[in-house]
Design goal:
This protein is mostly helical and about 280 residues long. The protein has helices at about 5-15, 35-40, 45-55, 60-70, 80-90, 95-105, 115-130, 135-150, 165-180, 185-200, 210-220, 230-250, and strands spanning about 20-25, 25-30, 35. The chain has two domains: about 20-55, no CATH class; about 80-250, Cytochrome P450-Terp, domain 2 (Cytochrome p450-Terp, domain 2, Orthogonal Bundle). The chain contains twelve helices and three strands, in the order H-E-E-E-H-H-H-H-H-H-H-H-H-H-H. Strand 1 and strand 2 (about 25-30) form a beta hairpin. Helix 4 (about 60-70) runs antiparallel to helix 9. The termini are far apart. It is an enzyme of class 2 (transferase). Pathway: Carbohydrate metabolism; tricarboxylic acid cycle; isocitrate from oxaloacetate: step 1/2. Belongs to the citrate synthase family. This is citrate synthase (unknown stereospecificity).
Length: about 280
């Protein structure tokens, strides 16, 4: 039996459903709030929170989220995503193409450590089951984690920084927020215990890095691990945009990862003839 036009219209209208935005002619509602009430009153971190969580945060919660977003915006043109954005511009891509190319590189290895660290910390929290976390329990979870994912523990250690200055500052802000009752400090404690456990295993301190510190903040604020990479991408997109724009002003044409004067290493067969 064929459908009536009314049935088709209802089916089409029900195809997508959303609790996020309600748009009608002359009206835009975000989570129920008229957009004109949000403009000029909500800061960008508060808008991110509203979009993802459905409600506006307390000011101190938004401050902590903002600190994490600010901390991770850039780490120089040696970071693959930043380098990609600059190379893409020299290949003729517009800003949006350069940004898209760079963001596509932010996957499990480059860009995924924060989300992975959140998963590890949540695994510890689940094992604790409401009790205070202990070093012994953390070591047991680390054994399970490394058995499943390999020896690299995301969120700790850094190839450039012996001590990551961003992590130091962010953890200080978390402890300050804990003292004011904004967060409970559970994941900050878990992160510190993971750092201690890794130090025991390696025989030297393996400090928390930016990915670990932002993982602590996002979990303290109640964000699920599945949003960790997206939040990092929101932050790093600022650096990607800035570098793409700077490269556009500098010019340059088809710049690869190394200048032509720096050769790569060829490891194939010696020159030979096809006979």
């Amino acid at each position: 039996m064929s459908k009536t036009p009314e049935q088709i219209a209802r089916e089409a209208s029900a195809w997508w459903t959303t609790e996020i935005v309600d748009i009608q002619p002359g009206r835009i509602g975000i989570r129920g709030y008229p957009i004109e009430q949000l403009i000029g009153r909500l800061r960008f971190p508060e808008m991110i929170w509203l979009m993802l969580r459905g409600e506006t945060p307390q000011r101190e919660q938004a401050d902590l989220l903002e600190a994490a977003l600010v901390a991770a915006v850039d780490h120089g043109p040696h970071a693959p995503s930043i380098a990609i954005s600059r190379m893409a511009v020299t290949c003729g891509l517009p800003i949006n193409g350069a940004m898209a190319s760079a963001i596509n590189a932010l996957d499990d290895i480059h860009g995924g450590a924060g989300e992975q660290c959140m998963e590890l910390m949540q695994q510890v929290a689940a094992a604790v089951e409401g009790r205070e976390p202990t070093l012994e329990l953390v070591e047991r979870v680390l054994d399970e984690y490394t058995a499943a994912h390999g020896k690299i523990v995301p969120g700790f250690g850094h190839r450039w920084h012996g001590t990551d200055p961003r992590a130091v500052r962010l953890l200080q802000l978390v402890r300050d927020a804990q003292a004011r009752g904004v967060v409970d400090g559970r994941f900050a404690t878990i992160g510190t215990l993971v750092e201690e456990a890794l130090g025991r295993r390696k025989g030297t301190r393996i400090p928390m890095n930016i990915d670990g510190a932002t993982a602590v903040i996002y979990l303290e604020l109640g964000f699920p691990a599945g949003l960790g990479r997206g939040l990092f991408i929101l932050s790093r997109s600022v650096g990607i945009l800035a570098h793409a724009w700077e490269q556009k002003q500098q010019g340059g044409r088809i710049k690869g990862p190394m200048p032509p004067s720096v050769p790569y290493t060829y490891t194939g067969p010696q020159a030979r003839d096809l006979r």
